[in-house]
Design brief:
Blueprint: H1 9-22, H2 24-27, E1 40-43, H3 48-61, E2 65-71, H4 72-78, E3 86-92, H5 94-103, E4 113-119, E5 125-129, H6 132-138, H7 145-163
Antiparallel strand pairs: 1-5, 2-3, 3-4, 4-5
Helix pairs in contact: 1-4, 3-7
């Protein structure tokens, strides 16, 4: 009897993300009260492919290293499921992330940073990310306000460059 190969873990991640994207109205609500809770979503003026390429270039230009680019739609297709374009870009900078992990190692669950480029039912492309101050707040990190402000400015700049 042939040995069956296990499915790659990312296929299961793709299914979970597809559920999030299918419920896009809730997913795309953005932040609440000062950007501290929830996912921030910015609509792009460009196509999906252009937005993704710009995001990657902007992240690298700001000193981030791209750790992973995961094409959820391709994974969903391999699983036999339809999914509009959706790619997760994971990128970070150890000089910024390490001090946060020194304050609380559990923040490593959410680092490096994650940016999701996705296409809505309306055909428009969006970039979604979790604000770093919200991430730090969940892990009860304090005393890193200057670093978090610099990181916030860099993240917002990267997303603005990607979505123009």
């Amino acid at each position: 009897m042939p040995i069956r190969q296990p499915r790659p873990a990312f296929a299961f991640v793709a299914i979970a993300v597809s559920l999030l994207i299918v419920s896009a109205p809730a997913f795309a609500q953005g932040t609440v009260a000062g950007g501290q809770a929830g996912v921030t979503t910015v609509e792009s003026a460009s196509s999906f492919d252009s937005t993704l390429a710009r995001l990657e270039r902007a992240a690298v230009a700001k000193g981030l290293t791209v750790a992973l680019k995961l094409d959820h739609a391709a994974a969903a297709k391999r699983a036999g499921l339809p999914l509009r374009p959706a790619t997760l870009l994971i990128a970070g900078n150890p000089a910024a992330g390490t001090p946060l992990m020194q304050a609380d190692p559990t923040i490593g669950v959410e680092l490096p940073l994650r940016f999701l480029v996705w296409q809505g039912e309306d055909g428009r492309t969006r970039v979604s990310y979790d604000p770093i101050k919200a991430i730090a707040s969940r892990h009860k990190i304090s005393g890193k306000d200057e670093l978090l402000t610099r990181m916030t400015n860099a993240i917002e700049s990267i997303v603005a460059d990607a979505t123009k």
